[in-house]
Design goal:
The protein is mostly beta strands. Helices cover 12% and strands 65% of the residues. The chain has one helix at residues 17-26, and strands spanning 5-11, 14-15, 32-41, 44-54, 57-68, 71-82. It is globular and about 35 Å long.
Length: 83
């Protein structure tokens, strides 16, 4: 997962390492996700990810991506929980 993110990526405005730590702590899951590409303009893109049953919780994420010399990388992730 880490390779999908830019080294300076953020999650809800905080360093992305927080996400990596939570995922490592929680371990594997049988969640399902749907990815919708919302827009692509030259070297930037926005995608929505709807995640179901990630350790009993549901989420919607928006990811902002940038295409650099090393390919597409997520530079920012924001998410909210669903009930």
């Amino acid at each position: 997962m880490k390779s999908a993110f830019h080294k300076n990526a953020t999650i809800n405005g905080e360093p992305i390492q927080g996400l990596f730590d939570v995922v490592d702590e929680k371990g594997e899951t049988n969640s399902k996700a749907r990815i919708d590409v919302l827009d692509v303009i030259n070297d930037i893109a926005v995608v929505r990810i709807t995640m179901e049953d990630w350790h009993g919780q549901n989420f919607v994420d928006l990811h902002l991506l940038h295409k650099g010399t090393d390919g597409w990388k997520i530079v920012a992730k924001v998410f909210t929980g669903l009930e």
